[in-house]
Specification:
This protein is mainly α. The protein has one domain. α1 runs antiparallel to α2, α2 runs antiparallel to α3 and α3 runs antiparallel to α5. The longest helix is centred in the middle third of the chain and has 28 residues. The mean pLDDT is about 90.
Length: about 140
């Protein structure tokens, strides 16, 4: 249970940091509802959906398949989310920017999600007498 709490606290802290980093990337120039919505969509596509999708899928797997899913899915899903955001919002307005030029920005949330998903797995290995069981809600 402790590993799950650590994961949830880490997730909350990461989400706050990631949202703030994306919102204030160009410096605060005043509040804009449109920009806020854009950042919320970006964070949803590159952090929230990948975290919960990867956690759910990894929870369905065992052994090496679970470890592989935890190591690969977060980065792949954040890249997919950034690609959707790029095609929908960036490409139509900024034709000079190409997806390969910005796709590396998906690694930060992908790696953070990977680390957060590894917490219960590592805790189960360190303390095997009390392994972390997946939540019933997963």
């Amino acid at each position: 249970m402790t590993a799950r709490r650590i994961q949830i606290i880490g997730w909350g802290l990461f989400l706050i940091y990631y949202f703030a980093a994306k919102y204030f990337v160009a410096g605060f120039t005043g509040f804009s509802v449109g920009y806020l919505v854009s950042v919320l969509i970006l964070v949803t596509l590159t952090a929230i959906i990948p975290f919960y999708t990867a956690r759910w899928l990894a929870g369905k797997l065992t052994g090496a398949a679970r470890v592989a899913a935890i190591l690969l899915l977060p980065v792949l899903l954040t890249m997919a989310g950034l690609s959707v955001f790029f095609v929908t919002f960036i490409a139509p307005n900024f034709e000079a920017i190409k997806l390969p030029d910005i796709i590396h920005r998906a690694f930060e949330p992908g790696i953070a999600i990977t680390v957060l998903l590894l917490v219960p797995l590592i805790a189960g290995r360190i303390s095997p007498e009390a392994p972390e069981a997946p939540d019933a809600s997963e």
